[in-house]
Design brief:
Elements: H1 8-14, H2 19-40, H3 49-60, H4 68-92, H5 97-121, H6 129-150, H7 162-170, H8 182-206, H9 209-225
Helix pairs in contact: 2-6, 2-8, 2-9, 3-4, 4-6, 5-6, 5-9, 7-8
Keywords: Membrane, Transmembrane, Transmembrane helix
Protein name: YoaK family protein
Organism: Streptomyces sp. R08
Length: about 230
């Protein structure tokens, strides 16, 4: 009896780091980037749009330290990134999660890398604030579109944890018992907190340059190594 051998396309999809590990790594990057944007770019979130909309309300009410235009720039760039990601996904339509993951993460690495170059070229220059917000928010919007397309169970987003925390607690011992996705959800929470701590420390002690460079390098590594399997 002939042995069943995996097809070349299956082998190609399976080659690389599993998507679950990649997306959990991206939660760390999200926490890092939001720490950079909030602490270094004028109290604005570029990954967490829920927080950004709330902060926009603070700015609109005249709360000190907040700027409406900063938040509108972030929100607008993020939405444009989502639209771009959605259109690219439709045009590619290869059926390969590996290809889409690598293309989208490669684009994120380039965008955040350009932001890092700007931060290195003009450290502390307030004229770079809006370009940095726009580049990083666009990258996060593109990523959210990519994650939505990848449809990995229990990690529906790498930037917002409200639904993740709700599901985690609901499935906990205090709720209905641990569900099959509890470990992934718990690691996503830990990942984002860890990224925020690292990003805050780097921003407070070394400015915007190094955390942005680190985020770009991480996205680049994931772009080169992601597979199409969960």
């Amino acid at each position: 009896m002939a042995e069943n051998t995996p097809s070349p396309s299956y082998d190609r999809e399976a080659r690389g780091v599993r998507l679950v590990a990649v997306l959990l790594g991206l939660t760390v990057v999200s926490g890092l980037i939001d720490a950079v944007s909030y602490l270094g770019l004028g109290h604005v979130f570029v990954a967490n749009m829920t927080g950004n909309v709330v902060v926009l309300g603070f700015a609109a009410a005249g709360a000190p330290g907040f700027t409406v235009l900063h938040n509108l720039t972030s929100l607008g760039a993020f939405l444009v990134g989502v639209v771009a990601g959605g259109r690219i996904s439709v045009r590619m339509d290869t059926g390969s999660r590996r290809t889409w993951a690598r293309v989208s993460l490669g684009a994120e690495a380039v965008l955040v890398g350009v932001a890092a170059v700007i931060a290195f070229a003009a450290p502390g220059d307030h004229a770079t604030t809006y370009p940095l917000i726009a580049l990083t928010a666009f990258a996060m919007g593109l990523r959210n579109a990519a994650v939505r397309t990848l449809k990995v169970a229990d990690i529906s987003t790498t930037t917002v944890l409200t639904s993740t925390l709700t599901a985690l607690v609901a499935d906990s011992v205090a709720g209905n018992g641990w569900g099959p996705g509890s470990l992934r959800r718990g690691l996503a929470v830990v990942g984002m907190v860890s990224g925020a701590v690292l990003g805050a420390w780097l921003t407070l002690h070394h400015g915007l340059r190094y955390p942005l460079l680190l985020a770009a390098l991480a996205a680049g590594v994931f772009a080169l190594t992601a597979s199409g399997r969960e």
